[in-house]
C-alpha cells in the first residue's frame, strides 16, 4: 500500500497541501480529482518523491519513504509516469524504453567495461522486453521512428511502457488522458485495465471524469489543498462539497 499521512506542503507560507491523508490500496486504481489548483499535482509529486512534504510522511508497504528520491522508490517497485521530455523526444520509440534501465544509475564505467558480455546479454533481454511491451500497445511497428512523431495518445502509451520496463508493482500516472483523442483514451483505459488484472496497482491524477469513472475503484477529491471527499466515483461526485469546489462557490 502507498500511504500519505497528514501531508502538508507549504510554499512561502501558502499551503498547496494542507493535512491530507490518503491510502492507495493494492489491487486498486485510485483517482485524485479536484478543480485547478486543488493540490493534485503537489500530492502526486509528494507520493512520487519529487517534492518532500513540509510535514507528514509517505509510506510504501509500511516503509517510510518520505525522503527517498524517485530512483530509490523505483527500486522498491513504485513507478511514475513522466511526460515525454524534449531529450527523450529525440530518441526513437524503442530507444525510449531502453534508456529506462535502473541499473544504469548505479553502475560505474569501469564496471561496465569489465562486464561487456553480461551487459550485451542484459541488453538483449531489455530489447525483448521492449518488443513485448510495444507490441501490446501496437507501437512495435513504429519502433525505429522518432518518438516526437507519435500522436498524443501514442506518447502516453509509450510513457506507460517506459514505466513498465522497470517492472513496478505500483504506478503513479499524471493525467493519462491529457492531449489524447477519445478513441485513444479508450485504448489507454483498456491497457491500464489489463495491467491491473496482472496485479499492478495505480494512482492517477485525472481530469477526464469518464476515465475516472471507468477505471477508479476509489477516488479522493481535493479542493484548496484539502481533502473534501473520499469514496467510490459515484459517492464522491454526489458529494455537495465536491460540487461546490468545482463550481468555485467555495466550501
Ligand atoms: N512550486 C510552487 N511554488 C509556489 N506555489 C506552487 C508551487 N507548486 C504549486 N503551487 C501552488 O499550489 C497550489 C496547488 O497546485 P497544484 O499544481 O498541486 O494543483 P492541481 O490540483 O494539480 O492543479 P491543476 O489541475 O491546475 O494542475 C496552486 O495554487 C499552485 O499555484
From TrEMBL:
Keywords: ATP-binding, Nucleotide-binding, Transport. SMART domains: AAA. It comes from the Bacteria. Residues 2-249 form the ABC transporter domain. One of its GO terms (molecular function) is ATP hydrolysis activity. GO terms for cellular component: plasma membrane. InterPro entries: AAA+_ATPase (IPR003593), ABC_AA/LPS_Transport (IPR051120), ABC_transporter-like_ATP-bd (IPR003439), ABC_transporter-like_CS (IPR017871), BCA_ABC_TP_C (IPR032823), P-loop_NTPase (IPR027417). PANTHER family: CONSERVED COMPONENT OF ABC TRANSPORTER FOR NATURAL AMINO ACIDS, CONSERVED COMPONENT OF ABC TRANSPORTER FOR NATURAL AMINO ACIDS-RELATED. Belongs to the ABC transporter superfamily. This is ABC transporter ATP-binding protein. It comes from Aureimonas fodinaquatilis. The lineage of its organism: Bacteria, Pseudomonadati, Pseudomonadota, Alphaproteobacteria, Hyphomicrobiales.
